[in-house]
Each structure stands twice: as C-alpha cells, then as structure tokens.
Write a sequence for this structure.
C-alpha cells in the first residue's frame, strides 16, 4: 500500500503505523462514562474508513487517511493537525 | 588532590569501518565535522521563523521536504515545522548561535553527535542507494535540494541531494542515528560493493 | 548425439559448446540452451517422476508453466530443488539431478503407487491416513514425505548474497513478447520512464518460438531491433531474467531478477538474485497466454508435449522433439506446428484433429506437405515404457488405428495468462466466444495481446502499441501515433475439447499433482462441487506451477460433472508469487548478523576490549557483564560487580535509555497530562521519577524527567519503549492537544550516558571532572541535574539512582563517549572502579524493589506496582479515568511484593506461579507469579519480585512457588519488595 503523505509525498505503508478510527476524540475528562466507549468500542467498517496513521519513519506526522478497508484504495490523506498553517493569533487564543 | 585533566579525544561515528570492495563506483565521505541541530518551530511561529531565517541566515525556507542552504549553513526540512540544520566546520558554537538567533521562535536541540552523516557520490551512487532507500532517486524527481526522511535497510534515515559534483555526478548525503552507523554501513557497503567503494579522507 | 539437434537455426551459439551432467551422465549443449532444450537435443525424454504415482515424466512445455520437468540444480551448498528445466539456462559444468525417484530415474520403486492407484484417488490423504491419529505424525507423514515430496533443499548455508532494490517508473510493462515490446516502445518513444520485465533470458516471447514476419523482417530480428532501441533510451530499463511475481496495493510489484542463476557462481560482489520492489504509475500487462493440454489416456507419457513447446524447441533451440512426431489438436495452431516441423524436414507422422471441419487453407497445406490427416479423431491411449513409442487413435468412424510416434504435440487452445491480474482480488470473467477466462478491469492497468484473449500477432502489436501510448499519455507524456507494423496472416480457430471420452489409462489434468479427469469427477460425486473445495480436495492447481496448464481443464471437467457451465463453476484465483521465489531473495541483506539493525553504544568498542558479554535489549547490544580472568561462572562475575558497586564504585553505560527533549511554553502542562504525577511543580535543576499510562489505565512506561533549563525538560524512557513513547507523545501533541505549544525530539543518540554508582562515586567524579561542576551533596543533592562546561564540551549531570547507591549519571556528546568511559576507568582506579553490566544492574534494582520490563508488562496498573499514590488527584492525565474503573482498583488484583525462599539455599525461578499452601494445582487457585528473580550477593540468597493477589497485605505469609518445568515447588515467604537499604539512606549520602 502507498500513502500520499502531505509532507513527504507518496511512501510505502511500511513507513507508517496504524492507530484506527480517526474520528474518535479523547472524551472530556468530566465525562468518565464516555471513556469506555472511546477506548474499547470501535466500529470495524467494511468500506470507507477515516483512520489515523503515523509517519514514524518519515516526517513524524499523524495523518488522517480515508481508506476503503476492502480494496485499500486511499481517497484522501491530510495532516491531522497542520501546525505550519497556524497563525500567531491562533497560538495566542489557545 | 591534583585533578587529572585527561584529554578526551572525540571518535567519529564511521571510524574504522572496513571497505571490502575497493573501487571508484561509489565514493563516500564521513561528514563528522558537521554541526547538526534539530530546529522545531514553536506553535504558531512558523511564519515568523521563516522570516527570521531569511534575515539572519539569508536562507529561504521553501515548503515541503527541501534543503535550503547559504554560507555553510543548511536547513533540511524533515517534517512540518521541523528541520535538521547543518553547519559546516562547526565547533560547539553551532547550537548556541542557533539558539541566540532563533530560540524564541523554535526549540533547538544539539544533534551533532546523534546523527552520523555520510556523503555518497560517484558515478554509481544512485544504483547503490536504490538498494537500500525506497525513494525514487531519478534526477528529474529527486532534484538537487530534495530531502527525504525515510528508512534505509530498516534504519531510519534522512537523505538529501546536493548539487552535482564537477564531473556531473549526483551527490547525496544521508544521516542515520549514530548507534546504527555500523549496521547502516554494512548495508550500504554491500550494496555498493559491485561498483567498488572509495572513502574520501581516509588513506 | 542422437541427432535431435537440427543442422541449423535457433538462437543458440553453435560455436560455444557447453558440457553438463544430468543424473551423472555427461552431455553437451550450447550457449542459449535451457536444460530442457539441451536434454531434448540429446534425445533425453525422461526427466522426472511424478509426485504421487511416480510415473515417468518428460518435458511438457518450454516455459515457466512447466509442471513436470523439475530438477535439482547444482550441488553442495548451492543445491536448489524444483528448478524448472524449461527455464534453467545452461552453463558450462551445470549439474542437474532428477527428483522424486529411488533408486534411479529408470527404475523407481515408488512407481508401485501407480498400481495401487485405487487408493491414491482424490482426497487420498484424507481417506487413507485418517486412523489411528497417532500414526499421522510418526508413521504416515514421514513415509509420505519420503515417497512424495519434490526435491531436496541444501542443508548447508547459502554461500551467495542476495539483495533488494527499489525502482520507480511511469509505465511498467510486464512481459517482453510482441505486445509488451510494442507497449514499451510506444510508451518510451513518448518519453515516459519505462521498465520492461521479462522472465526469459531473451526478449520476444512467442516471437522466438514461431516463424513470423513483422514489417518485412523476421520476428526475431524485429525483437532485436526493438530491444536495441529500448536500451538506447535513458529512461528505459529493460530487465531480462526478471519475473514479476506479485501485484500489491498501490501499484507496487514484486519482481525477482536472476542476476547470476545462469552462471556457475556469481561474479565477485554480484548477488545471486535481486528482489525488486517496483512502483509504477501505470502498468501494461502483456503476459501472453499459456497453451492448455488435451486430456486423454496416458497423456503424461514422456514425449507428449505442448504443440507450441515443440515449435519453440524447433525455432528457438534448433531441436526436433522427435523424428516421427504426431500432432493432436483441436485448434488451427496445432497445424502450424505440423507445418513448421515438416518444413524443417521432420517426418510428421500424422495430424489428428478433434474437429470434423477445418479451414480450406489447412487442408491444402496438409495436402501439399503430404501429412497424414485424421479429422474428427482422437488420441485415446499412448504406449511406451519410458518414452512414447505408439499412439492409439479412435477415428471419426469409430475405428481404431495405432500410429508409431516418438513425440506427440498437443494443442488444446490458449488460456490468457491472467495470474497477476487476480493478485489484488480481480475476478476473471469467462468469455463464451473465446472459451477462456479474461482478466477483469484493474485500476491503473491495461492488458494487451494474448493476455486479454487477442491471440493473433497483429492484435498483440496493435493492442500493445495502444496500451503503451495510453499509459504514457495518462502519465503526462504525449505519445506520437504509432501504427503497428504489418504481419503475416494467421488462423486462430479453436473448438475447445475438454476431455477425450473413453480414453484408456489415466487422463491427467494436473500433471504436477497427479490429478486425473477421474479424480475431478469423483470429487464432484463426493460433493466437492465448489472450485475452492475441488482445489483443496484434489490438490488440482497447487504446486510450483500453480495449475497454469491445468486449471481451466479442471474447471471444465467439474462443470461437465455437475451439469453447469464453466462461468457457473467459476475459478479459483492466484496469489503471489507467480513462480517460486527463493527465501534468499526475500531476505536480501538481512540475514545472520544483519537480520535486523544493531545499535551500538559509544562504549561498545571499549566494552568489547574488556571482554564484555553482550545481550540484546531492543535493537541495542548492551554489556551483560564483564568477566575478569579466573571467573568461571557468570554469577560469580555478577556478584563481584554488585559487591564492588555497593562497597566502592562501578560504572554502567545507560545510553540506551530513551531521551526525549521537551520544550515549549506549555511543556510543563503537557508533561502533567502524560504523567500520572505532577511535573509542573518541578523546579529547574531538579529531576523527578514519573509514570505514564495508556488511556486504558495500564502503565505504559516509566522514567525520570529533568528540568534542565526554564521550559526545557529531558525525559528518559526505558530502552525498549523509547520508540513507543515517542509515538505516544507525538500523538498527544498532534492529535489530542494540538493547542499546546510543545516541541519534542529524540536526543537519545546525542548523548553517551554513564551511571557512576557506589559510595565512592562522588570521589571518582571529582577526580574526573576536576572542578568543572561542584558535586558535593550540598551543591548537587539527590535528584539534582545540571548542564555544565567540561573541557571543550557541554555535558550534563543527573543525580539519579537505579541501584539505590549514591549515584550520578554523566551525559557527554556521543563522540566523546568512548574517551569518557576510558577516562572514568582511569579516574576510578584508586577506588577499584568496576564496569558493571545489565545483569548486575538488574540484581541491584531487584534488591531495591524497582520495577522494570518484567513488571511493566502492559498488564499492570500504577497501584499494582505499589505506585498508586503517585497518581495525582489535582489534574487530568492520560489513563486517569480508566485507571479508576472497578476492575483496576480491585483490592484482589495481583500487586508487587518481594519473595524469599523459606529455605534460603533454594534458587527461585521467574515465572513460577503462587499457590496457597494446601491448594490444588489448578488455574482458579492461581495467586500470581514471580516476575523477576536474582541472587542477592548482599543477602547471600535468592530473592524475587512478584505480582501476588492482594500484594502487600500478605507480607509474612508463606506460599508455594510452583514451577513444574524446572524447580518443581519451593516454599516462599512474602516480604516487602525493598530488600536492601529500605530507608534509602545510601542514595542520599
């Protein structure tokens, strides 16, 4: 499989590690009941899936990859968080 | 008590590694004298850092995995907001001067000893490298100034291309973790053996 | 010579004679021969025995689809089994041996299996060797392995080198026949980067095996011109002897280049084979077609071969496959063989065509050449002990006729070679018009020529040129129009004939697996009517040839047996590799010492000089202990090292621990969120131990974090988890809290770091550092850290201790690591400094009850390790919520304790399980287990750490440590995990 890393370009999937569903967010610490679901209850869809990949043998970016789990066709790849486009204002706000 | 000022002699990462197939197809040279630091832009300071680097170093940081160099200093982009900076013939001042210039906009860490850098050139450099690096090294694709953070024979590596040498051959530099220098060398020298290997700067 | 080599013709070098051996007999061939063509030239028909029945077998094909002619090539360490003689290039001195026969090829005891054939029917393994079950391993399997099986691998280490390489292109053309050459030419002329791969050692495919004309010159000449043009272009790589064996996701292809297989031994520094990973933007699949056999009685007799193969031997190798051949055909193509043989002066005995009507041109050709022609006729039997002598024909009128013949060329039509098109799940589709399976549409791939059922040369050239142009265009290269050259006419009529009814003897479908037509019908009768079941039950289509010649015939027979059509039956698909690939090629450089990369510390050379024994820790090699002269036992050495450290001073390389630089405005906040304890309260110049959890509440790693400068922290990790922690931190930084201003980078490799431990460690450092930094207890107390100038370098010092002694860790830039360890030894001479290894470190940490990898096993919580009170209640951190779930705070969970053998002379073994006294040995009585053990030289007996249900609450209790594999059962006493210096007075001194 080849993944089009937004920074590095197209690379073999062996440079990446996989971490499942990219739509799962860490729940608010004040809502402990949501943690079980976030950590353990994952869907395993046949078809389009938004997932996290880490380009550990490359630019060290976490990526959001939309992939068909049946055919391994990759539709989109983007930085999970593109730090380079953040402005000072955003930084100040955070 | 007399303190013993034992003279500490530095040791190069690729020191004493054997050449098993002497020849001239691939020429390698250890770049032990390079000062190296990692430069990571602070949050939201990417633009400001680009501007500062232009002002202080006369270097234009272009987006993507590119090497930009001027006056013996090179910014090698390895990730978004991440560079390896190399300084020619640096003494220990490399990190200090970078921190002075950029410290408010970027996190600077000395890597001069962590990264072992080898220059790989000669008429068969590409043929040898293609055996260990999963990167398209075609001259039109991986042009002078191109950078790839990747894996070389199961070893994490950063590869970049310099300007061609006077005879028109491509010149690459490749950086690996120091502890992996010997393993990496075994893979590279076996890949280059069929073309013959010469080490510059070693008798 | 028995006169099978013709006086002229062929692509062999008649000036270069090569001698070779087959089963110890010496023969002569020529450069350009394969082993098969050279054997045929010498009149050798019998080359092997079949897998199951040990029937004599000859050469069936002239290509990689060969099911029969498998030989062992070379001898000694280079012996290689199951090599197809039909593709093995002849070299001078080659030695080949037939396989699967005993005692000799001519007389094979195993041939009795043929007489016992009623028990060797479909599924015979399952039926015959079922009972008693115990017999399978001890009797049946060894017996079958000896009787069946194919060749023998060398048991010596392979002396050759193998390598891997990467290639990239716009257009990958797979197959160097007419279609592939045309595709490569048109893509290359458009300026595309082209790679052309062909498994053969000459390009041209069928053009070498046929007598064809292209644009006024011979097919061979056209091929040579095309190859020369391609090779003159800078962006074209022509790869002969290169099999594309697998298609993988993302337009990635695996190919094996046989760099030196055609040489007696590889040239210096040349690999035997090279494994290519090719990434292509577009692919042209021009893999041609494979001729299918006819299924008739005793169709496996040596001398029976594919009609196209006979032509290849004739035209490419100048070899007559027989002096008196017959052609048995259901196609027009079979006639081409007859005419070509006749034109070469070979007396074709007859053409037997299953069809009653054939085209007028064939009839007139037959008349002109005077070939005896039988239409609507079938070969139903063959005779001859080790080679064909006679065929029995049932004529159209039902009458029988025996014909003397020494070769039979069969032509059952062509199957597109679609294997690669199915590797990624493409389902072949049946063409009623052509009676063949065609490849399905594939992303990025264009199929051209015979591979897509276009069997004429004109179509192959036309489609190839169009495919190459299209592929070039879609990768941004304007292709000039190229009109394919004109070619001579050909007929391509076929009337499929799946089985010759009422044959005598066994009619083989799959030659390699000895599957007959009857086996297929029997399997169907027994209910194995799905193709997948048929394949597994009969083994049809398995083996080195992957059923290349047998699949479609098998499916047709299954269809007939079950009253279905072939598309209703469907087909199995192929998976990589297309042809066998040696392990050596897959492994490449990475074998032996290079199996995986090894990381060496800066002190490695010095440690090796000191005679250290090394042990692997993750990728690192670490010194395990440093034996002194006279020490005969590792335990003796380790005890000395521990005692020396605890009584004076020792030095240990701890550079392998992960070191991560953490900077940024929000670094402290970030650390508070990844550690269970507070880091934000840590002042500059101080170090703190920390634990991090996974989000599921279990411990991930531990280590210290030093606040080295304002907003600048250095985190240490365990050696094995360094990479995992880095990924975890990057995830926290980029995915979970991207709003934080934090920069992290690994600095593990920048620093060589040494632990100097023991009551004299301060004195040693004072001597070494010569006042570069004040290391007095007042200036540099326990857990202090500092960066300082030492000689020409910036060094770092941390006052941390894993051993429980007064200890420091000195970090220097790695290039000074070698000099520093030597300097440490010199500086410590006065106090008898010793280097100590991982083993002594382990003993001392167990004496101190410090947890390490055995306890940080991914299944323990901070509370389990006795560190529950470190969990801050004043902040959120990764793992906090789930660490609080009922199952993880259960008081009955196994928790860390210390253990001593009640009989102090007994040795403890890690892994022993705890049982209460009197409890039966059963899983539900399991109380936990010993995680780490050591002999404590300070206590003079074995000690251990363990995870015991209810842990510390049971101090004082006696238990059984049950270890049935080694020690049996030992009574142990539960104690505090801190065995030595429980007040911690030593490390603060």
């Amino acid at each position: 499989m080849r993944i089009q890393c937004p920074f590095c370009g197209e690379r073999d999937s062996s440079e990446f590690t996989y971490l499942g569903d990219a739509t799962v967010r860490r729940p608010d610490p004040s809502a402990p009941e949501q943690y079980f679901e976030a950590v353990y209850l994952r869907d395993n869809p046949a078809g389009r899936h938004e997932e996290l990949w880490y380009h550990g043998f490359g630019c060290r970016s976490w990526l959001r990859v939309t992939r068909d789990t049946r055919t391994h066709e990759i539709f989109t790849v983007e930085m999970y968080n593109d730090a380079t486009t953040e402005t000072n204002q955003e930084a100040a706000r955070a | 008590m007399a303190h013993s000022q034992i003279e500490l002699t530095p040791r190069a990462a690729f020191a004493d590694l054997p050449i098993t197939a002497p020849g001239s197809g691939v020429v390698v040279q250890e770049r032990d004298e390079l000062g190296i630091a990692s430069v990571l832009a602070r949050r939201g300071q990417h633009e400001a850092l680009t501007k500062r680097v232009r002002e202080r170093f006369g270097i234009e940081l272009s987006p993507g995995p590119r090497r930009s160099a001027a006056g013996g200093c090179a910014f090698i982009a390895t990730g978004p907001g991440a560079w390896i900076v190399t300084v020619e013939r640096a003494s220990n001042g490399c990190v200090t001067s970078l921190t002075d210039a950029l410290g408010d906009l970027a996190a600077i860490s000395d890597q001069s000893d962590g990264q072992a850098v080898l220059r790989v050139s000669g008429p068969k450099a590409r043929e040898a490298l293609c055996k260990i690096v999963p990167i398209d090294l075609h001259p039109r694709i991986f042009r002078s100034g191109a950078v790839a953070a990747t894996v070389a024979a199961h070893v994490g590596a950063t590869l970049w291309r310099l300007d061609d040498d006077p005879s028109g051959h491509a010149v690459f530099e490749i950086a690996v973790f120091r502890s992996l220098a010997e393993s990496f060398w075994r893979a590279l020298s076996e890949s280059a053996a069929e073309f013959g290997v010469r080490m510059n700067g070693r008798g | 010579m028995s006169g099978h080599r013709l006086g002229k013709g062929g692509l062999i070098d008649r000036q270069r004679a090569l001698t070779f051996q087959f089963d110890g007999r010496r023969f002569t061939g020529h450069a350009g021969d394969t082993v098969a063509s050279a054997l045929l030239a010498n009149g050798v028909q019998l080359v092997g025995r079949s897998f199951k029945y040990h029937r004599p077998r000859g050469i069936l094909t002239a290509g990689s689809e060969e099911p029969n002619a498998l030989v062992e090539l070379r001898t000694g360490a280079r012996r290689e089994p199951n090599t197809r003689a039909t593709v093995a290039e002849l070299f001078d001195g080659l030695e080949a041996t037939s396989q699967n026969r005993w005692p000799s090829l001519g007389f094979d005891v195993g041939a009795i299996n043929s007489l016992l054939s009623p028990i060797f029917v479909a599924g015979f393994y399952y039926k015959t060797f079922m009972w008693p079950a115990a017999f399978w391993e001890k009797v049946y399997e060894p017996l079958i392995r000896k009787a069946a099986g194919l060749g023998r691998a060398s048991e010596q280490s392979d002396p050759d080198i193998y390598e891997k390489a990467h290639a990239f292109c716009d257009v990958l053309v797979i197959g160097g026949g007419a279609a592939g050459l045309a595709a490569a030419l048109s893509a290359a002329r458009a300026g595309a980067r082209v790679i052309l791969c062909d498994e053969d050692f000459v390009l041209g495919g069928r053009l070498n095996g046929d007598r064809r004309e292209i644009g006024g010159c011979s097919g061979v000449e056209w091929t040579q011109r095309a190859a020369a043009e391609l090779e003159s272009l800078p962006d074209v790589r022509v790869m002969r002897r290169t099999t594309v064996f697998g298609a993988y996701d993302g337009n990635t292809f695996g190919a094996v280049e046989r760099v030196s297989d055609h040489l007696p031994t590889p040239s210096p520094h040349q690999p035997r084979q090279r494994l290519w990973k090719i990434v292509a933007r577009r692919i042209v699949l021009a893999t041609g077609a494979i001729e299918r056999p006819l299924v008739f009685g005793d169709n496996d007799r040596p001398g029976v071969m594919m009609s196209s193969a006979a032509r290849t031997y004739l035209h490419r190798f100048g070899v007559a496959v027989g002096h008196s051949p017959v052609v048995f055909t259901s196609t027009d193509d079979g006639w081409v063989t007859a005419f070509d043989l006749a034109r070469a002066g070979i007396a074709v005995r007859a053409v037997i065509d299953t069809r009653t009507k054939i085209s007028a041109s064939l009839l007139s050709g037959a008349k002109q050449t005077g070939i005896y022609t039988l239409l609507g006729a079938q070969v139903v039997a063959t005779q001859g002990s080790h080679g064909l002598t006679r065929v029995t024909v049932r004529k159209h009128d039902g009458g029988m006729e025996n014909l003397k013949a020494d070769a039979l060329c069969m032509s059952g039509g062509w199957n597109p070679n679609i294997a690669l098109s199915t590797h990624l799940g493409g389902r072949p589709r049946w063409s009623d018009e052509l009676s063949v399976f065609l490849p399905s549409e594939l992303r990025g791939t264009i199929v051209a020529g015979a591979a897509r059922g276009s069997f004429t040369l004109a179509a192959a050239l036309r489609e190839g040129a169009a495919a190459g142009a299209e592929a070039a265009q879609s990768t941004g290269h304007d292709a000039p129009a190229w009109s394919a050259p004109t070619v001579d006419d050909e007929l391509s009529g076929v009337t499929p004939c799946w089985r010759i009814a009422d044959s005598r003897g066994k009619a083989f479908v799959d030659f390699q697996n000895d599957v007959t037509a009857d086996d297929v019908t029997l399997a169907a009768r027994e209910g194995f009517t799905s193709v997948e079941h048929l394949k597994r039950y009969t083994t049809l289509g398995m083996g080195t040839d992957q059923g290349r010649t047998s699949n479609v015939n098998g499916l047709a027979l299954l269809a007939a047996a079950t009253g279905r059509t072939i598309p209703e039956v469907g087909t199995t698909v192929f998976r990589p590799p297309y042809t066998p690939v040696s392990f050596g090629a897959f492994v490449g450089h990475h074998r032996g010492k290079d199996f995986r990369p090894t990381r060496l510390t800066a002190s490695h050379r010095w440690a090796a000089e000191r005679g250290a024994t090394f042990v692997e820790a993750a990728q690192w090699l670490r010194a395990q202990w440093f034996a002194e002269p006279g020490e005969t036992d590792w335990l003796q050495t380790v005890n000395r090292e521990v005692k020396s450290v605890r009584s004076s001073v020792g030095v240990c390389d701890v550079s392998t621990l992960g070191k991560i630089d953490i900077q940024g405005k929000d670094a402290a906040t970030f650390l508070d969120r990844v550690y269970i304890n507070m880091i934000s309260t840590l002042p500059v110049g101080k170090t703190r131990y920390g634990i991090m959890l996974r989000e599921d509440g279990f411990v991930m790693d531990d280590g210290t974090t030093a606040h080295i400068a304002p907003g600048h922290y250095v985190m240490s990790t365990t050696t094995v988890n360094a990479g995992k922690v880095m990924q975890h931190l990057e995830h926290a930084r980029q995915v979970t809290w991207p709003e934080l201003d934090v920069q992290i980078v690994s600095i593990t490799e920048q620093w060589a770091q040494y632990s100097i431990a023991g009551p004299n460690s301060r004195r040693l450092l004072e001597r070494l550092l010569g006042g570069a930094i004040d290391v007095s207890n007042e200036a540099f107390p326990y857990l202090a850290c500092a960066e300082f100038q030492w000689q020409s370098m910036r060094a770092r010092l941390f006052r941390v201790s894993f051993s429980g002694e007064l200890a420091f860790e000195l970090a220097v830039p790695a290039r000074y690591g070698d000099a520093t360890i030597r300097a440490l030894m010199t500086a410590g001479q006065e106090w008898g400094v010793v280097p100590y290894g991982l083993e002594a470190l382990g003993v001392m940490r167990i004496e101190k009850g410090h947890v390490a990898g055995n306890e940080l096993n991914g299944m323990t919580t901070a509370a389990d390790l006795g560190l529950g009170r470190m969990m801050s209640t004043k902040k959120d951190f990764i793992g906090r919520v789930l660490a609080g779930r009922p199952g993880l705070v259960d008081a009955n969970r196994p928790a860390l304790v210390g253990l001593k053998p009640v009989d102090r002379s007994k040795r403890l073994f890690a892994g022993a399980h705890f049982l209460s006294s009197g409890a039966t040995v059963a899983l539900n009585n399991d109380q936990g287990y010993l995680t780490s053990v050591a002999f404590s030289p300070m206590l003079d007996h074995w000690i251990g750490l363990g995870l015991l249900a209810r842990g510390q609450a049971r101090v004082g209790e006696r238990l059984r440590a049950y270890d049935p594999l080694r020690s049996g059962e030992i009574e142990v006493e539960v104690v505090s995990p801190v065995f030595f210096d429980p007040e911690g007075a030593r490390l603060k001194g």
